[in-house]
Amino acid sequence: MLSRIRRCLFIALANLTQRKMRLLVALAGTGVPIVLLALQIASLNAARIQVTRLYDDFTFDLVLVPYTYQFLYAGGTFDRVRFNQAHAVPGVADIFGLNVDTNRWTDLETMRSSSLLLIGIDEQPGFVRDPEMAQGLGSLTGTRAVLIDEFSSSDYGKLANGTEANISDQAVEIAGNYQLGLFFYADGSAIARNTDFPQLSGRDPRTVSIGLVQLENGADAGVVKAALAGALPNDVRVLTKSELIAQERTFFLTTKPLGIVLSTSMWIAFGVGAVILWQVLSADIVNRVKEFATMKAMGFSQSFVMGVGLAQASFLALGSFLPAIAIAAVILATIERLTHLPTALTPELSANVLAIVLVMCMLAAFSAVRRIARAAPAELYR
Amino acid sequence: MMTSPGLGIRLLAFNPARLLAAFAGIAVAVVIMFVELGLLVGVLDSQAIMADLVRGDLVMMSRGRTNLHKFNDFDRIRLSQIAGLSGVGEIIPIYQGTAGLESPEDEVIRRIMVVSFPAGHTPLAIGDEDEIARQLATPRTILYDRRSRPIFGNIVVGEDVELDGALYRVGGFVDIGPDIVNDGAVVMSEGAWLMRRPNARPIMGVIRLLAGADVAQVRERIVAALPDDVSVLTPVEVRDREVAFTLSSAPIGVLFGIGMLAGLIIGAITCYQILFNEIVDRMKQYAMLKAMGFSDAFLRRVILAQAVLLSCGGFVLGLGLAYSVYAYIAKETALAVQLSLTSGGIIFALAAGMSIAAGLLAVRRVRIADPAELY
């Protein structure tokens, strides 16, 4: 059996390498859909990661959001007194207030204003997971001090510590920085303490946008969630961290135009990739239909001959995979450098692409080797 | 005697299944080019929508407002300062901001863009001028952008909606269209907006010239009369500047720009690939024709006819598919994604060009084909 498979692979390899030029053209053909798929999958994945990036910077188990909450940028607020009520629920260890507001940043040197996502956070270092943000939190001392997102638009001006700027016509001073890059929502972002946030945003200090809840060790998230939902009035909703992240991503991918555009182009890449693969592979097999028929006439079994066809398809897919992935990685790294979107091609994503390509290849090859099954040796020399 | 294009077509039509597969292959290449190009153009157009809507000869904006998605405003007095200059006819301020619109369906408050200008003047091409003037002159009346994304719920003319907690009557509809950030828009009169935001300053001033005035000359006079905290551009310049900004500086432009380049290259390679296979596989027939005495030039014409036929057929099929994809994206995102003659022309040229190039390359193989080697 094993030797049969080995022979099958050997013949496939010999078939492919018989004409070098033809092999190169076929490899280029299978490489194209791989590049296309890798680009689309990585872009979509980057967008998915990016939209929940702010939440990734914090450690929490459950989240309290106002009942009007749609996504980070359009939420609404609820009364902070809900925090006190939630504290009384068994299993709740601590709650962290996160505020978000759409605002304006003005660079004092050029007097350019840009849109700003102003983030307010409570001073509880235990919730901040991002090391730069945690370190920055310690340097937020004066009432005018803010941390600035290094990935903000270049119109934000100098982002060095000590630089002065305006947030909605109030003077602030940069006391530290972090990396976020939420450009889907605004030109940049800045973090202030929640004690200063109401002053900068003009919001009622008794309200808060989002409450992040940490549980006591051993508390069950599902049980506490149900208890919180029962204890709090229905102007707030309770979600687990994974529910929040899933909802945030779904909202972006199905409602925001960019998400729709990115997911549509990924499905199109699937379709286009499959058709191109089918074209290339079936051309490669059909060209040798005579040889396959001759093998059948020599007494090789149907499954053996079809196995050669499938092996040829797999070799082509595997052979073009590395160069194609390398090209895609270069393009994606360029996008990442220019946009700060995490589009870099990770080994995990590459493995996904490889799996998808192999499946598509097999489907395409199966439909092509049916020609071999139909090939009758007698018809060859008409 | 058979003409060369006629023979090319009959060769292709000999095996209809195979012809269909080749059409399909070129069609997908055309689709990927259309989709990537269409998305880029759609994003660029949507971001520059305000410039296209301006109904006037010149536009005044704060110097700091380097793109239409910045909110730098300027002193209203700048508009009064130029009112007396010769050639200047009408000057209309436009204000822009956001407010929370409560959906009549699920009562969720969502951010919506508010555009406002003085009642009786319509600086933007967003609907019937008289109707807009009449509606905005009525206190507490707003006009709703019918192209807003459906998330705001079913907004009905004649009913009240809540905007930042205050009730307004929906007087009618206008056509503006969302962009990547804004989901929708309402229009209200300057007076109504200043009542909400007493310190609001205009974000744009639309300047109309007197009949016969020269745009360049009047612009010079305006620029000379004002300090350099404002810039004065024609609507076309504003649009061009916006497109250049999105393409080069906005991350979204970079993302879709690279996507478009990749799409065009991939599409071109695929066309080439298909044509090349198509001809190499018929090598035997061509060698036979040569043996029968047909000239190389005749064979070249046969192959070119095939390239043109395949790219035309594939293009038409791909165009149909791309149209459905565009319709789907336009429906879901309300972005200005549409087929244009220019992008269609570029894509057809690429598809046909690559097919012909592949055909010509394959012709060289036919030229050296030796009939005797066939058997």
Secondary structure blueprint with pairings:
The complex is a heterodimer of chains A (382) and B (375).
Chain A: H1 2-17, H2 20-51, H3 53-56, E1 62-66, E2 78-79, H4 81-87, E3 92-107, E4 112-121, H5 131-139, E5 145-149, E6 164-167, E7 170-178, E8 188-193, H6 197-201, E9 207-208, E10 210-215, H7 221-231, E11 236-240, H8 241-254, H9 257-286, H10 289-297, H11 302-339, H12 347-374
Parallel strand pairs in A: 4-8, 5-7
Antiparallel strand pairs in A: 1-10, 1-11, 2-9, 3-4, 3-6, 3-10, 5-8, 6-7
Chain B: H1 4-13, H2 16-47, H3 49-53, E1 58-62, H4 77-81, E2 88-102, E3 109-117, H5 129-136, E4 141-145, E5 160-163, E6 166-174, E7 185-189, H6 190-196, E8 204-209, H7 215-225, E9 230-233, H8 235-248, H9 251-280, H10 283-291, H11 296-333, H12 341-368
Report what the structure shows.
The complex is a heterodimer of chains A (382) and B (375). Chain A is α+β, with helices and mostly antiparallel strands. Chain A has two domains: 2-51 and 257-381, no CATH class; 68-233, no CATH class. Chain A has helices at residues 2-17, 20-51, 53-56, 81-87, 131-139, 197-201, 221-231, 241-254, 257-286, 289-297, 302-339, 347-374, and strands spanning 62-66, 78-79, 92-107, 112-121, 145-149, 164-167, 170-178, 188-193, 207-208, 210-215, 236-240. In chain A, the strands form two sheets. Chain A has a six-stranded mixed beta barrel with strand order 3-4-8-5-7-6. In chain A, a hairpin with a 2-residue loop joins β6 and β7. With 375 residues, chain B is of the alpha+beta class. Chain B folds into two domains: 4-47 and 251-374, no CATH class; 58-233, no CATH class. Chain B is built from twelve helices and nine strands. Chain B starts with a helix and ends in a 7-residue tail after the last helix. The model of chain B has no long low-confidence stretch (mean pLDDT 86). The chains are: A alpha+beta (382), B alpha+beta (375). Chains A and B meet through α2, β4, α9 and α11 of A and α2, β3, α9 and α11 of B.
